[in-house]
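Exercise 7. Predict the structure of Augmin complex subunit wac from Drosophila suzukii.
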Amino acid sequence: MQSLKIQEEIKALKGLGQHLEEQLKLASVELGDFSDGDLALLDKCVHYYALSHIHEFNLNFMRDFYCAKKRDCIENRQTKVQQRIELQRIKSAIEEATRDVAVLERFMSAAEERLIPDIVVLQRNSQHLATKQALLDRQKTLKIPKDFNIESVIEKVNSLERR
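Solution. The predicted structure, encoded as tokens:
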């Protein structure tokens, strides 16, 4: 009795296999067209169909699955291309920034060479202030007559130069 059930089940499964192969041929799909990975995926699919006792193979599900996988593949390729473009843009920006840094470093080294230390600037400033104060003091001691006309002196110098 048990063996009769098993034989009937085997016969039903062979018939189902024949039926599925015919449906695949109608869709112009040969099992030899699939890669090993695809065949393993089909084996899993068949295993799940057997576990869920679904014996009717709907070709639309296979098309939907194929279209979804194809869309994912195209989206992945598009993402890769966009990421390559973005990577190239980033590399270009890095190269430009590197060039800018080199220019700025050269400018800094040239500016540091020309830089006058703070002590020297303070010394010069104090010297200038001292000189200014000395000149102001000398000017105060200088007695200029009230009737002195600088314009007349300039005219006399100019006339002497013309002669």
